[in-house]
Design brief:
The chain is built from 13 helices and six strands. It is mainly alpha-helical. Helix 2 packs across helix 6.
Length: 413
């Protein structure tokens, strides 16, 4: 949804909020980091339950949302938590203020910054050659965070008044409802759009199993969340064997009008092969689990059903339960053979992969009330839960250069 809003904002179809709401505009950004703990082990260590940046911790959330004026205030610190917010903001990978505007700075130490995800033109076989090596938040999200840092937002966070130390973030959005009928009639179409698009991948647009970079262009839309359709009066041109940048940006080009199949044609074909190829931790000396590509839709590391049962078993020792809770298995561990064998397997046996499902926790303060668990695995368990941790296929420098130049010809990036 964030990716769709960004070009909509640039086209003046969507006005930047006059008032920034903590729960509506800021908290969803942080929730995505916490939710990633169930699909990537690296995120679990830093953003998981009781981790250093646990955004489900009620004390932590209160510091993020509260505005308590300093007495006296000064230009550097208007309220007691402003520096805290600023240091959180400083963790994010920021765009440059030079042209082209809002492109990540290739000269900054980007890999350690948030989010820990590869970007559109990541090069895995050598030194980064492109500013889009790693993913950046959208321009709209960053502007909202800037307002938040300055204290120019509304603290509308309402935490439950009980003895719990943590909270399920999804229960804090008091501006949402549980059913469509509860929304005012005028808001229902937008909520239907949001429901359909919220679970789409927002990057990296490499491309692969996602709709990819054309969705960032405002010309793709006729209205907010509405694709501009191609009609019989403006048939698509025959681009020949090579699509030039000029043709891509032409007002009758592929970024302006779309017929059935025109959006998915930018994806990998078949998408399953690319899905199994893009994993995480491609520089093991840096981190074997990070950065990652699309963990929200293509999990990297998951909590198994067996470990979940251990966590839920009160007869087990606390040590056993904690070890089980903090253990993760590679989601693709069941794929057999080498690289080519595995991508073929993804096409024919995709249904054997596990599904990450929401389950209840054990009602124990050492564990969260909500746990996401892998279930429905059709493969026999390999000897190691870390089997297939890395994809052995890493493109050579020449291959990476080819794909980068190809994307430039297509107008990507």
């Amino acid at each position: 949804t964030d990716v769709f809003i960004n070009p909509t904002a640039r086209s003046l179809w969507w006005s930047f909020p006059e008032e920034i709401s903590f729960t509506k505009h800021i908290l969803p950004i942080f929730q995505q980091f916490s939710d990633a703990q169930w699909v990537n082990y690296g995120f679990s260590v830093q953003f998981g339950y009781s981790a250093p940046f646990d955004f489900t911790n009620k004390v932590f959330l209160k510091k993020l949302s509260q505005i308590i004026p300093c007495q006296p205030a000064n230009e550097l610190k208007k309220d007691i938590y402003q520096e805290f917010r600023r240091q959180i903001y400083d963790q994010f990978r920021l765009p440059t203020q030079t042209e082209p505007k809002f492109q990540p700075d290739p000269n900054s130490p980007t890999v350690q910054l948030w989010p820990w995800m590869y970007g559109d033109t990541v090069q895995l076989g050598g030194a980064p050659q492109d500013a889009n090596q790693y993913l950046c938040l959208t321009n709209t999200q960053l502007m909202m965070l800037e307002k938040w840092v300055e204290g120019d937002f509304t603290d509308d966070l309402e935490l439950p008044e009980d003895d719990s130390t943590h909270v399920d973030i999804s229960t804090l959005y008091h501006h949402t409802h549980s059913t469509l009928e509860q929304y005012p009639t005028a808001e229902q179409p937008l909520e239907l759009d949001r429901a359909a698009m919220h679970f789409c991948l927002g990057g990296a647009f490499h491309p692969g199993c996602e709709m990819t970079w054309p969705m960032r262009h405002a010309t793709m839309y006729r209205a907010p969340f509405r694709i501009r359709p191609r009609t019989d009066n403006n048939p698509e041109s025959n681009y020949g064997v090579q699509l030039s940048h000029k043709e891509v940006m032409d007002d009758n080009g592929p970024l302006y009008f779309n017929a059935p199949g025109d959006i998915t044609r930018w994806m990998a074909v078949p998408w399953q092969t690319d899905t199994s190829s893009c994993r995480s931790g491609y520089i093991p000396k840096y981190d074997p689990f990070l950065p990652t590509f699309w963990p929200a839709r293509v999990p990297n590391h998951v909590l198994t059903q067996q470990d979940y049962e251990t966590v839920m078993d009160p007869k087990k020792s606390k040590q056993e339960r904690l070890e089980a809770f903090n253990r993760r298995a590679v989601w693709l561990r069941g794929l057999p053979g080498e690289y080519l064998d595995q991508i073929r397997e993804m096409i024919t046996e995709f249904g054997k992969l596990g599904i990450v499902e929401k389950r209840e926790g054990p009602k124990d303060p050492d564990f969260p009330d909500v746990i996401y668990v892998e279930s429905g695995v059709g493969y026999e368990e390999p000897e190691s839960l870390l089997n297939n941790l890395l994809c052995e296929y890493i493109p050579s420098a020449n291959e990476a250069r080819y794909w980068r130049e190809r994307q430039e010809r297509l107008g990507g990036g």
